[in-house]
Target: Sulfate permease, SulP family
Amino acid sequence: MEQFKPMLFTCMKKYSKEQFVKDVVSGIIVAIIALPLSIALALASGVGPEPGLYTAIVAGFLISFFGGSTVQIAGPTAAFATIVAGIIATDGMDGLIIATIMAGIILILLGVFKAGALIKFIPYTITTGFTAGIAVTILIGQFKDFFGMDFHGEKPIETMDKLKLFFVNIDTINWQAVLVGVVCLAVLIIWPKFFTKVPASIIAVFVGIFMVKGLGLNVNTIGTLYPDLKAGLPSISVPHFSLGVIKNEMPNAFTIAILAAIESLLSAVVADGMVNSKHRSNQELIGQGIGNIGSVLFGGIPATGAIARTAANIKNGGRTPIAGMVHSITLLIILVVLMPYAKFIPMPCIAAILFQVAYNMCQWRPFVRLIKYAPKSDIIVLVLTFVLTIVFDLVVAIEWGMIVACILFIKRMSEETHVSGWTYQKDDEEFVDDLRPVKKEIRVYEITGPLFFGVSDALAESINVKDFTKVLVMRMRSVPAIDITALRALRDLVERAEKKGVTVVFSHVNEQPRQMMERADFIKLVGEENFQPNIDAALDRAEEILWLK
Model:
């Protein structure tokens, strides 16, 4: 049961005062980093700035408390921005809450049923493709605010619609907004090269506010777009549940759950490498589920482990979940005391922060490397997932990415399976293999590779029973696995052979195929005596059958 124990309880066994001080300091620093990011990601998700902080506070605390990583920092992330924006635009906040609660339940069930290791079966090409696609959607989504444009009341949801409106309204560019955005972006890029103690995003926020207020620039701020911005604790939000809404939100729930699982476990793996630890994947999924349910019930949005904030926590000395809990408490204090001042933050500054987020998550180097060196089938999956994420959405991208990946994998595996017969010098002579004579009435076939539905036809097409054949020897030492379709094809082969008076003998059947054959009564059909441990024993059995005939 150790794998279902929150990492917090394990860390407390050897906790020291020195580590507590380091965790507190790290938690405060990470909270300062998370403040502008949480607001920016909330705005990118189509909600106000407050839900971003609610998410970092509630989900961040719960995931640190119940999670399976020692150093994971959770909160709103860029991966969810387009998904959340789409759900809110079509189904409202109630739809998002219901979808996220369902996603939380799915995550908890995945953890309970020990599915943490199954996430590794999502192909790397798909995760790279949709991550790069999400980065592009975030980038395009921030064009309006970065360039200070006027879309004349239109609020597009789809990425391609946003891009279209950008070009249609390009004459409305506010060059003062562009100036603020460029300066803030320059601060984000240059500041970390010289100063590492103070987060660049905080400096960019102060520079942006100074430019707009000090120079009197005509640039939209958070207060302009969200005049009702207020401080205070979040209140519980209980949506209206109905069977129709639950059914409608099921695809969104699965998307949120899978994405949260992938991103949080990837972040935990990266963190393990940085601190030489090992997270509990199933407990982490349970923590993510609890955190997401708590987040949306208190006015937040979906959350997951954030790699950048987790890395910052590690670099500043955080080594236990206490750091993540301190990060949440610090943000709570900021929410209560300083939230009204967030209205002065310029929108181009928020856009610049999200530009940097998009760049950091786009993984363009791995993307280009895959294009150069990966097999064509992997490149197809990569590009397809990337394009579908941008043109449609993440749900479509993952669905079709997995479908195409599976089809191409089946094709590739089918090409690795071969059925070949031993070559005889002449049909009226004996053939010598490994200095052993094999009578012409005995035909030996080697099967190499897994036998599954994709290659079942090869058994009928490749195995040729001649008129003088009396025994077929099927050498299966290189068959690691078999499915029911291929087993059915073998059964058909045996039945056809019996009608022609031919006996089939199997050599070196491995564990999984043999178990399948036993459950399907295939061994009883063929005869236990016709299953031999190696080719020599199989040939001895074949000669015995010839003598009996």
Notes: The chain is about 65% helix and 5% strand. Residues 243-275 form the longest helix (33 residues).
